[in-house]
């Protein structure tokens, strides 16, 4: 009678592979977290700059655009590394 493996992977993984994969998963989570913090900081900066009057509005638009860029970059990074989250 054939024995069933408890491992769901059809390919055996070396011991170091699992450790490396956990490191990449943690690094991905850290990178996404830092991107969220950067986006929130830029949005807060834009809100603060808006209170400075007409001169601050142009700076606020730049900060808001940068926050949008960081958000879109995080979305692309998250999609590109989604296989690590599994």
In short:
This protein is mainly alpha-helical and 86 residues long. The chain has one domain.
Q: Can you give a write-up of this model?
A:
With 86 residues, the protein is mainly alpha-helical. The protein has one domain. 73% of the residues lie in helices and 0% in strands. The protein is built from two helices and no strands. The chain has helices at residues 15-50, 54-80. α1 runs antiparallel to α2 (54-80). The longest helix has 36 residues, at 15-50. It starts with 14 loop residues before the first helix and ends in a 6-residue tail after the last helix. The model has no long low-confidence stretch (mean pLDDT 88).
Q: Any key phrases for this structure?
A:
86 residues, mainly alpha, 73% helix, rod-shaped
Mean pLDDT equals: 88
Outline the low-pLDDT stretches: none
Q: What fraction of the residues are assigned to beta strands by DSSP?
A: under 5%
Helices and strands: which structural class? mainly alpha
The profile of the biggest β sheet is: none
Overall geometry comes to: rod-shaped
Put simply, the count of helices is 2
Q: How many strand units?
A: 0
Task: Give the proportion of residues in helices.
Answer: over 70%
Task: Kindly report how far apart the N and C termini lie.
Answer: 32 Å
- Helix and strand run: HH
C-alpha-based Rg, rounded: 21 Å
Number of domains: 1
